[in-house]
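Practice problem: predict the structure.
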Amino acid sequence: MPTQEKGRATMVQGGSVQGGWGQDAWGMGKSLNRVRTIAYWIFTFLVAYEMVAGGIWDLLRIEYVRVVLAHLGYPMYLLTIIGVWKIPCAVVLFLPRFLRLKEWAYAGAFFNYSGAAASHLFVNDGAGKWAAPLVLAVLTLASWALRPAALRLAGPAPSTDRRVLPWLVPGLLLIVMLILALVFLPKGPPPA
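Answer:
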């Protein structure tokens, strides 16, 4: 039965409401997907660009990164280790397949940025030092969350298993490992 809603025809068919302009009942379907896609690509580009630029800066060991690393108390060879991984991370974010590798790239980017923010916090730097890596960590999470369905790993089916034992055994093993790690703490410096 046709009705009039704010100047546009709305049809009720089979219990669903369809807008006269080809949108969903809320009028946001296609435009919301378009905004989501645009936001995904902007966030992904920003994260990937920073990874490439940061990787090049690290591998060239420019003065800026050397000063930051020294200030944070890290060894200079860390620039090579991190720099080598940043560039493939950026490449993987743009690849159409390799979904598992893409998940690892997102995790690596998040660890990189959140670790940088935490490092600045641990040496009592002000917000001017830790805010940028924190924003990049949030952009990484946003890019990951806004990925199109074709770029997501299929999740496992929800478990209906409500038994306690599958959760209890790993928890107990973790407690045993923590106790053993504390019991066998080394005393003094490492052997020469």
